[in-house]
Design a protein that fits this description.
This protein has helices at about 1-10, 45-55, 60-65, 75, 100-110, 160-165, 240-250, 255-260, 310-325, 330-360, 370-385, 390-400, 410-420, and strands at about 15-20, 45, 70, 75-80, 85, 95, 115-120, 125-130, 135-140, 145, 150-155, 175-190, 200-205, 215-220, 225-230, 270-280, 290-295, 300. The chain is α+β, with helices and mostly antiparallel strands. An eight-stranded mixed beta sheet has the order 5-4-13-14-15-12-16-18.
């Protein structure tokens, strides 16, 4: 996805753009090896949908035509945490649920229609070509060198950019790794008209530190549910049907377990592990080559449970286009400008994700300054949002990367959050997470 959105942006600024993918790309919405999470749930954040709709006019209609489901977060998503379900309140914020392979297929189809853009599959990059402080192309596993004015590394969290840059005499970026031990198992089910008792999707989240399991059920194309259960620091994610069903029953709200108890399964359980979030500090490098930038998971790989990666990649592609426009070419200054802009985009979702991960005491890695205070306040915002629709709306807009996090720290909102959390006023005790809502 990072490479595809980059190609869309670069197609307006370069005569020829080539997208390289080592997989043999499938037709339509089929999971593939190069995207380990492609068989698992994905939700496009509100801001991510807006970014893609801006890049590809009419994209929302194409999603709907492909079977995607659009729903209001407040009225159609059953969200459980801190001992209760959030009350139904309209937010005017719509999520779009579709399988990752279908989403990627639609984007790839649009990209391949762009003049001057070519997609080559079944080919791997083995090195960067360079000369005199500049990256000049890529070396392929076929032995071919593909010349380029700009190379965008969208090769994911397994990017070999550290080694590639070192070969050309450039320093590798400092890397931050947060070990989250995430694992989850997914299964597809046939979708009926009212399987979720009036809801269109469901998510059950743990209340840390004493809970670490979650579950999610999302509608996808083909009248199917994609259902996933897992969590943080899971040693043995459920690998068979019996374990999958028992894991779902262990969640503090029964909505996911009730769904899979009655729906018809269409696939066997499939498990994926995500050991650590990873961020590379390209923005802090003293020396950068011209003609090279990193985008998507090659820059920052988020815990996928938070659903931020595709949205941030789309935003970063826009930042790359803006940097090229300001500098007129793929210069060192343009690369530095872009990496700093991308780091600014990453800052808020990274802090949200890492803060949430460190709420679990088994999470390890460099802890950002102020994490304990941020988590303390985040919990109180969540509790207040369960009884105050306006606070919930403000929180969701930040969570969906629409508004800056500073919105949540305005004096008036802080005062209301603390007032609603005063002793004796809280309607949802922090220790009430064992309540099973019906």
């Amino acid at each position: 996805m990072a490479g595809l959105v980059a190609a869309r942006v670069l197609g307006e600024r370069f005569e020829d753009v080539t997208v390289l993918d080592r997989d043999a790309l499938p037709e339509g919405g089929t999971p593939r090896r190069g995207v380990p999470q492609s068989a698992h749930p994905h939700v496009l954040l509100v801001s991510g949908l807006r970014e893609l709709a801006g890049l590809f006019p009419g994209f929302e209609d194409e999603l709907a035509g492909a079977g995607a489901t659009r729903f209001d977060i407040g009225t159609s998503l059953c969200a459980y945490r801190y001992g209760r379900r959030w009350p139904r309140e309209p937010t005017d914020l719509d999520l779009v649920s579709v399988s990752r392979p279908q989403l990627e297929s639609l984007v790839r189809d649009r990209v391949t229609q762009l003049p001057g853009v070519t997609v080559r599959d079944g080919v791997s990059v083995t090195a960067l070509a360079g000369d005199g402080g500049r990256v000049t192309g890529t070396v392929l596993d076929t032995g071919e060198t593909l010349d380029a004015d700009l190379v965008v590394d969208g090769s994911g969290r397994g990017s070999r950019s550290d080694r590639w840059l070192a070969t050309l005499g450039f320093p590798a970026p400092e890397q931050t790794e947060i070990k989250v031990g995430v694992a989850y198992t997914t299964r597809l089910y046939r979708r009926g008209r009212d399987d979720l008792d009036g809801w269109r999707a469901a998510v059950v989240l743990p209340t840390p530190p004493h809970e670490n399991r979650y579950g999610v059920a999302l509608p996808i194309e083909g009248d199917r549910w994609i259902v996933s259960v897992g969590g943080w620091h899971i040693d043995a994610p459920p690998g068979d049907t019996a374990a999958f069903e028992e894991f779902a029953k262990s969640l503090p709200d029964p909505i996911v377990a009730d769904l899979i108890a009655t729906a018809e399964p269409l696939t066997d359980p499939a498990t994926v592990r995500f050991p650590a979030s990873r961020r590379r500090a390209f923005d802090r490098l003293d020396r950068l080559p011209a003609g090279y930038v990193a985008l998507g998971d090659a820059f920052c790989s988020f815990n996928p449970i938070y659903g931020q990666g595709i949205t941030v990649a789309a935003m970063a592609a826009g930042a790359l286009g803006a940097a090229l426009d300001r500098h007129g070419a793929a210069t060192v200054a343009a690369a530095r400008d872009y990496h700093r802009a991308a780091a600014d985009l990453i800052a808020t979702p990274w802090r949200f994700a890492v803060g949430g991960d460190f709420a679990n005491p088994k999470t390890t890695g460099p802890r950002p300054r102020g994490t304990a205070l941020s988590n303390w306040y985040a919990r109180r915002i969540a509790l207040a949002s369960q009884v105050a629709p306006d606070i919930n709306a403000a929180f969701l807009r930040v969570q969906q990367l629409i508004d800056p996090a500073s919105v949540l720290f305005r004096p008036g909102l802080i005062a209301r959050v603390l007032w609603l959390n005063r002793p004796g006023a809280r309607t949802v005790p922090e220790g009430a997470s064992a309540v099973r809502a019906r």
